[in-house]
Amino acid sequence: MSEECDVLLRDGGIAHVRPLAAGDGAGLHELVARTSERSAYLRFFTGGRATAHAYADRLTRPGRQGLVLVAILHGRLVAIAEHTPAAAPTAAEMAILIDDAAQGLGLGTLLLEHLAVRAAEAGVAELTGEVLAENRAMLRMLHDLGLPVELEYDGSLVHLRIRLDPGDRLLESVAARDHQAERASLARVMAPASIAVVGAGRDPSGAGHKVLRNLLDGGFPGPVYPVNPKAARVAGIEAYPDPRAVPGPVDLAVVAVPAPAVLSVARDCAAAGVKGLVVLTAGFAQNEGRPAERELVAICRSAGMRLVGPNCLGIVNTAARMNASFLPTPLVGGGIAVMSQSGAVGAALLERLPVSSLVSVGDKADVSGNDLLEYWEDDETAQVIALYLESFGNPRRFARIAARVGRRKPVLLIKSGRSVAGDRAVRSHTAAAATPDVAVDALVRAAGVIRVDGVRDMLDTARLLTAQPLPAGRRVAIVGNSGGPQAMAADACEREGLVVPELGPSAAPAAWVRAGSALGNPVDLTADASAEEIGAAVEGVLAEAGVDAVLVVYTPPFGSGPEATRKAIGEAARASRKTVVACVMGHEGLIDGRIPVYAYPEEAVRALARVTAYAAWLRTPDDRAEPVSRGPARGAREIVLSELAARPGGGWLDPVATGRLLGCFGVSVAESISVDAPESACVEIIVGGVNYPAFGPLVMVGMGGVTADLLADRAFRVPPLSLDAAAELIADLRCSPLLYGHRGRPKADVRSLAEQIVRVGRLLDALPEVAELDLDPVIVSPSGAVAVDARVRLAPSTPAPSPFARRLR
User: Fold this and answer.
1) pLDDT tens digits for 720-735?
2) pTM score of the predicted model
3) Residue 552's closest CA among 464, 485, 470, 472?
4) How far apart are the C-alpha atoms of 614 and 612, rounded to whole Å?
5) What are the start-end ranges of the E strands in 624-750?
């Protein structure tokens, strides 16, 4: 992991964690001098500070072994965590000291997380130490850490051993602490008690004036302070020359000043104790603005301020009656929380959706989609989360958070940049197929995220999610008064993976059967059908056990007309718990405030298909892959480092090195295999993977042989994979029936193939330097799955941030 990083604390503050530096001696002694007698006794087991000052001197002594991490809070060194070599070669002794004033913020746990990860990377298997039995805070912290801890009581002393064996418990503990900190850090940004608008001018066309006007007109309940050094009053209220002159505390400052003045304003806000900054000003994301953006982030981080933007529209929270944006749209409350990296997309969604909140993140220098997912997870006003992203800051973290949030509420995503980009000059079969957009699809699919193709698709899907219950399955009944649009709806269902089953006779009571009606599915009642007949038909198909959702297709002005027909549809569906959607040709909206109406059948079906897939994901168990054991990973890393030392630029491994590397994870390659008969070979499969520097690893399984590229029968997942997930990946292939005994063929050993896929996934997940990998072909037969040929390409790579150590990107 990188040498230093910013981290969120329990109360939402921001600390900076880094290794001890040569110039930290004075800061260490100041920390010791501030330590109370009680804290010194609990840490050093003696009274007085002489031992503590001697300890500070020892930490800065040249040639010291081990690692010391320090935490900086508001420019002051406030905590130390260290490990030093112990008697056992794979053990290290650990110790922690925290400033009295910084206790209770979670710093000890945070530093111990980072210390454990760095120690494990250095080959340490366990941390040891001693703590007084009366030091209950330390013992409680160890209990809650999430790593296996052994405590041995010896009178007033407790000997401790922490096994550095990260797993699901640590990941869940880290995620819970991260969630608490994220919520706290954004609380005063999303629901501030007071707001300052810096750059609020008198010109009604200016962004600052518009924000001020929106806050006042929208009824924001807290104090609003215009900041303008050239005006005594703005919009009829008193103005102030700078944020430090504001008479009360400020939770949020909205900055609408020219780019050259932003850094100065940020420093003033930091000095005034502002908790969050929304910077509307553009001009930071381009190359010439990058240094200024980095400095802006540094100012915010050192002061504990969260930053939205720069180059954004602002933020809106309808529940808090806060419109801190310069958009003219009035506040209309709803259940959809929106984050947009594009101002235009954000404006379009705000205008057309009933939102609970909108955050326009602009250049996304600090607050990102990951942060907002954490905040909205527990926000009861946010029933659905809609994201427009141009880039992922940390894709793997996004997937972990989104998968957790998605179990509670749906997450919609527009991800721009579907085109293939980058150098494809030297590619394996896997890398040629596994484009970055394919990787995004695999990532979001595994996380249960509903990926949509554009604003129209997002609007359609969000409307259905907020209005109707989720469907229990894929079976759709189509009822309507016009055969053509109903046939189009049935065709769209087939394309989108929905099923239009034949309906039983009980779905067609005589009361609404008229001459000429088609009573299979679709149920075509003909153009003369009255509103009552359409309503009765809807009731009838909703009562069918073999129907999960009903799509009503009505073409006005036939029958009883649109108003009477809409009313009949609403009444027919009122008592049902099944999903009901309607297509009233050429019209949109809601029937009875709860049945979404689409202008065209394809729109209705596409939204229904997205929601059905999400409901199916919710019914699947939360799948967990086993972590990679330390032995194979360490042996493989030694091979990788040796090869890259010989060829720093990377390249394709020779067959011997390839075999050794694959062997570390139990993947064997045979030069030839024997089969009983030609048909016993069953089928050739490709198993491979890629590692993208900004995205991470991706596993591919596909049909092999000479038709592989022609048929393009492939499936992708993000590793690590469990055995069940690997089996699902195989089943996604169109050729998979060949493996399961299609037309009398012998059944292949699918489990053996799944095990190969799991091992490849573990390798890719553990070794980001493996840029491309192909097992081509893997011969799958009733007796096993054996790779006949393998290729591996290495490339220099920066390790991905550890999921076990919290950090702000």
Assistant:
1) 899 999 999 999 999 8
2) 0.93
3) 485
4) 5
5) 651-652, 683-692, 696-703, 714-717
